[in-house]
Amino acid sequence: MELRHLRYFAAVAETCHFGQAAAQLHIAQPALSQAIRQLESELDVTLFTRTTRQVSLTPAGEFLRTEAARVLAAVDDSVRGVRRIGAGRHGLVRLGLTGTASFSHLPGIARVVKRELPEVALEIHADLLTPAQCERLQSGALDLGVLRPPATGEGLTLRTLEVEPLALAIPVDHRLAVEPVVALADLRTEPFVAYSARDSAVNEAVLRSCREAGFVPRREHEAPSTAVLLALVAAGLGVAVVPASVRALPLEGVIFRDLLDAGSVELSLAYRTDDDNPVVDAVIEVLEAADLFTAPRLEVPRS
Known about the structure:
Elements: H1 3-15, H2 18-25, H3 29-43, E1 48-50, E2 55-57, H4 59-86, E3 90-97, H5 101-104, H6 106-116, E4 119-125, H7 130-139, E5 144-147, E6 156-171, E7 181-183, E8 191-195, H8 201-212, E9 218-223, H9 226-234, E10 240-243, E11 254-260, E12 264-272, H10 278-289, E13 298-300
Parallel strand pairs: 3-4, 3-5, 7-11, 8-9
Antiparallel strand pairs: 1-2, 5-12, 6-10, 6-11, 6-12, 6-13
């Protein structure tokens, strides 16, 4: 059964008039009559009772009218869905985030996507460090990643979301708690709590800043996540130098202070350079239109 024959039948069933149905379909009446006869022959059933005065549906025709309406509606819905997907307006995007990006940047990203692409769903993968995100991006397990450069591996494009300063997290009863701003050099004798990840971009930034201030930080405790890191600080086990966005995670027993000459860390959106998924392209376009990026794209070339 051809789909066009089903549409022809639905038009005649609606009007019970071959001339009116032919006009609606923009075809000649003889061609429409022939198509209906072909459909009846294929189904081996009479669909219409025809007289010189009227056309009416047979019981088989009544049944087919209901089924044809259902089938044609499903086909039309499918066509619209396929076109939305092809235009990047419908689908699923898997988004990875590192550390506090879930608090500092996910709300803004999700808000833009919901407003501009209401039929695009975000599948969130939080608390992923940069190396893990890069691996998942390259394997196709993630579509987008909010991470801290440098990216590991190859074939990724990075767009800068923010360059944020480093801040100091200390226990509320720390000697420096009375200071609104602290010099990094004042921390040379302090025990540090750092991230346990070997390739932590924050650890590298803190080490670089401390060396520029004339000392190497004394790392006495390590934490697998920002939440654990702050808990160790609250317990008085050390101080921590963290991205300023960590302030979005208030924890009783911890206060934050601005740091002089402490450098900064970058947060970027990463995606596969050769990704041809129109939904991913659409999400990147709406984020760009919302001015969420602060610098041109940077590609990590393939070797």
